[in-house]
Amino acid sequence: MKRSSNNKFIIMILSLAVVVAVLFSVMSYFSTTSAALPNIAGIIVSPFRSVTASVSEMVRDLTGYFTEFDSLKEENRQLKIKIAEMEEDIRQATFDREENAHLRKVAELREQRRDLHLESARVLVQDSSNWYSLLTINKGTSYDIAVGDCVVTEEGYFLGVVTETGLNWATVRTILDSESSIGALVFRSGGSALAQGDFSLMGQGRMALSYLGAEPDVVAGDLVVTSGLGGYFPSQIVIGYVEEIRTSDNGLAHYAVLKPEMSLEGLTEIYVVTSFDVVE
Amino acid sequence: MLPKSYRVFKWLVYAAATLLLCGVQSLLCNNLRVFGVTPFLYPLLPAMVAMFEGTRPGAVFGLVLGIFCDLLVPAPFRGFFTIAFPAAAVFAAGIASRLLSRGVLCALVVSAAGLLTVCAFRLAVQVLSGGQYLGLMARISLAETLLTLPFVLAALPVYRSIFRKCAADY
Asked: How is chain A split into domains, by residue range?
């Protein structure tokens, strides 16, 4: 008798769970930002997330202070070499820019313009779990952040796309997530491709560059940037560098393994591109 | 039978303990990566409560925690944890009722059952949505379960002390 009533109760709870799950899914489906309940939940836990983010940051800084001395010294040495190389490039670029401006004037071309409206935000939660690569940030619709906005790091590298927004929070899907996909361009050859998150590469912090064509003009070390095609994201934002070229399992197509330039390690500040105007 | 007010108090303490362990997830586990895998504590929480409190309270606790997680934690679809956690709790309670002592070994077994139930749900969703990377997902699920199990040693004393205190008071 008791066993039968127990079974009835379990069936009732599981049925209730299914009903609630269906309601959740329906609410998410019909909402363009985030459904009311997740929005409220996000607002409520926002202060707690801020506190945990601050504590995490503090602990990371403290441990970094003791453990990163040698690596920082080495990084400093390499940066000095890089700065010297870049100064050389800048001198050449200054000359090229002047020449370019002059030629544009002669050819009566439109002047290049690049206006990005950036909104800075702080990372509250880094949910780089085994299944997803998502971030929760501390700004949302109250700062004009909308679903589909692209997100860049402090250095200007492509980080991800806003997928959900609440009043004072937003979720960012990083480019490593298996559901990410961005129109890309191989900087050297100008070939277009699709930079996609791949579940099998996500754990290694890598992504795939697909749709390279039958004979891809891509080599290891090639820089990959956003294509800007379709006008969803600004063009020329650095995504990463090609690491190796592979052939797909069926042997018919090639894809490249891409190492993104952005790093999730120690990421605290990011920038959301709320609007942009790029003329090339 | 516990008085109603005491029962409410007991579940509030359970909720506070669960929030504390959720804090461990966001402060510690989210920053911990062993061989590229991160521990995932949430499924073991309903399993452990079900181990101490039984099937019915465990299932209700799983439902409430599932709703909470669905609002805040990414999942294959919104509502995933709401279904998976009560199922994990029922499964865990079923195993716990067949074991004599509710000690560390029992906690490890029921927690593994809870974690694997959620993994099974995840794999089922993947099969229904095309079934790519099933082998890899199974491997990660197993690694996630093994990596999360040591945290049972942190969660067990918390839940056991609440259960024992209430049993001692009444």
From this structure: 181-260
**Does the pLDDT of residue A195 top 60, yes or no?**
yes
Query: Nearest C-alpha of chain B: how many angstroms from A228?
Result: 28
What CATH superfamily is the domain A181-260? Rod shape-determining protein MreC, domain 2 (2.40.10.350)
Chain A CB within 8 Å of residue B82 CB: yes
The DSSP call for residue A109 is P
Which residues 104-143 on chain B approach chain A with CB closer than 8 angstroms? 122, 132-133, 136-137, 140, 143
The two tokens of residue A271 are: 């920038």
B16: Cα separation from own chain's centroid: 15
Interface contact A41-B26, CB threshold 8 A: no
Considering only CB atoms, which chain B residues are within 8 Å of A14? 59, 83, 86-87, 90
Contact B27 A28 (CB under 8 A): no
Q: Between chains, do A126 and B38 touch, taking CB under 8 Å as contact?
A: no
For residue A44, what are the CA distances in angstroms to A41, A195, A262, B13, B107?
5, 35, 30, 20, 32
Of A9, A18, A130, the CB nearest to B38: A130
pLDDT of residue A32: 58
Q: How many domains does chain B have?
A: 1
Helix, strand, coil percentages, rounded to 5, for chain A: 40, 30, 30
Q: Which residue has the tokens 């956003």?
A: A226
| Non-local CB neighbours of B52 within 8 Å, separated by 6+ positions | B102, B159, B160, B163
pLDDT tens readout for residues B87-125 = 999 999 998 888 767 788 899 999 999 999 999 999 999
Cα B115 from Cα B14, distance rounded (Å): 20
Give buried/exposed letters for A7-41 (b at 16+ CB in 10 A, else e). Answer: eeebeebbeebeebbeebbebbeeeebbbebbbeb
Give me the residue label for tokens 């890899």.
B136
Q: How far apart are CA A76 and CA A89, in angstroms?
A: 20
Residue B161 contacts A where some CB pair is shorter than 8 Å: no
Q: Average of pLDDT values for A81-95?
A: 92
Residue A251 amino acid letter: G
Q: Which residues of B touch A21 (CB under 8 A)?
A: 70, 77-80, 82-83
Of A22, A42, A127, the CB nearest to B79: A22
For residue B90, what is the nearest residue in chain A, using CA coordinates? A10
For chain A, say whether B63 makes contact (Cβ under 8 Å).
yes
Is the pLDDT score of A40 beyond 60? yes
Q: What is the CATH number of the domain that holds B151?
A: 1.10.1760.20
Domain around B67 = 4-169
